Amino acid sequence: MKTTLTWGETLSITSMLFGLFFGAGNLIFPAFMGQEAGSNVWYALAGFLITGVGMPMLAVTALGITGSSGLLELSQRVGRRFGLIFTCALYLTIGPFFASPRCVTVPFEIGAKALLPAGFNEQLALLLVSLAFVAAALWFSLRPGKILVWTGKILTPLFLAVLSILLLTALTHPASTITAFTPTPAYTSAPVLQGLLDGYNTMDTLAGLAFGIIVVDVIRKLGIEEPAAIARNTVKAGVFSCLLMAVIYVLVAIAGAESRGYAPINGNGGAVLASISSFYFSDAGAALLALIVLFACLKTVIGLITSCSEAFVTMFPGKFSYQQLAIAFAVITFLIANIGLSAIIQFSIPVLMMLYPIAIILTLTSLAGRICSLDRLITRSIMTAVVLSSAFDFIKALPPAWRTSLGLDGLISQLSEILPFFAQGFGWLCPALLGLIAGFILKLLQGKIHDSQ
Predict the structure, then answer these.
(1) What angle do CA 191, 244, 362 make, to 5 degrees?
(2) Range(s) of the chain covered by CATH 1.20.1740.10
(3) For residues 216 and 112, is the Cβ–Cβ distance under 8 A?
(4) Any stretches that span the bilayer, and where are they (predicted)?
(5) In a 10 Å sphere around its CB, with 0-12 CB exposed, 13-18 middle and 19+ buried, how is residue 101 labelled?
(6) What values do phi and psi take at 398, rounded to 5?
(7) What's the pTM value of the predicted model, to 2 decimals?
(8) Positive or negative CA dihedral for 3, 205, 292, 246?
């Protein structure tokens, strides 16, 4: 019986998983962080790599070593109802509601928009570009058995080849040294913490939990059936793909920091990348950047439609076919993409701030449960505390006008004063610790009651 993938197969799965991970946010956020951080870019990168690389690596590892076939099975170790609700929420967030539409609009905002003739209606252009993009992604997604070929062997190598042209040119011909640029206020006093928050925006811990179902399926199709062997090969592919992501994050962030030598501080990472490409490649820079972003986002949308559809088929067997779900998710992605990138990001951040702590704790408790047999009662206690506290992170991340209209500003001010790290975006840390302590106490009391009987 086959128990180990060949190096060629491992490389293909690594390439596929990297391709699924590395989408719009993975280019935009490190570039923006680099420009904003300036001379503090290395400190910001330290934080960014923890949440942007370390946690996704642990998420894939958790799926692997627990032998879970996907997020639903992993999360139902906490509770059946929790598993179903969290799995639905996560897949809809990184799929048709937020991440997929973002991946559709980014190529338009960064690439196609710059190539439009003067006076052309931008909303109509977005409609046409998003329609063509989603149609192409759906065509690939309706053939899930070929995802290793499409993503691992074709789209990802093309993306890396085109991106390397831009990065190698920028990094070998720097306009100035990074130490010359003063960091912006957000990266002056606590650049590591800000980097941690920036890593949230990539959505990769959520993606690591979501894409596990694709990796496990591909490994099985390559002839490995033994659960322990599937786990080993899943972990190996996860580690390799995340290390590749880390290298590219570092290079993109440094290029973003060096762009301060020839470009003003921009409002978003897309504008930073546009500045870099236009500085080094003049008019051809827009076309080069359009290709980079197109390949980056297309492969990710294919993976998101595929994983979401497969997950919902598993969660609701007999209700919908894979093809029906893929078409439905593609249509929703297309509709939401047309509200525009800024609106998508504005709506997605509060949801991410709520889901990310839950995903992190699910990952860590799953690993702890495998390593030291963490009791289910303790896991549920920790998760309950984090779920409750993450609701406050959701409220805090709402647009200020929304908070004011809902009368929530006073609550946020009070929480910032009494809850450690809440103001920095990590208000769930202390509740998680209290949940752990409460779990141990409950377990101890449970044992005493059992002994007395």
Answers:
(1) 65
(2) 7-338
(3) no
(4) 7-29, 41-66, 78-99, 124-142, 154-173, 205-223, 235-257, 287-313, 325-345, 351-369, 381-402, 422-445
(5) buried
(6) -65, 150
(7) 0.85
(8) negative
Token digits of residue 240: 């390799």
For residue 408, CA distances in Å to 8, 354, 400, 414 come to: 54, 16, 9, 10
pLDDT tens track of the chain, all 453 residues?
788 888 888 888 888 888 888 876 788 889 999 999 999 999 999 999 998 898 888 888 888 888 887 888 899 989 899 999 999 999 998 889 988 898 888 888 777 776 777 778 888 989 999 999 999 999 989 988 787 777 878 888 888 898 999 999 999 998 888 888 999 998 998 899 899 888 877 778 888 888 877 787 888 888 888 888 888 888 888 889 989 999 999 999 999 999 998 888 877 787 888 889 989 998 788 788 888 888 888 888 988 899 899 889 989 988 999 999 999 999 999 999 999 877 887 888 888 889 989 999 999 999 888 777 778 889 999 999 999 999 998 999 888 888 899 898 899 999 988 998 888 778 899 999 999 999 989 888 877 666 665
Superfamily of domain covering 7-338: Amino acid/polyamine transporter I (1.20.1740.10)
Return d(Cα 400, Cα 422) in angstroms, integer. Answer: 16
117: left (phi over 0), alpha (psi -120 to 50) or beta: beta
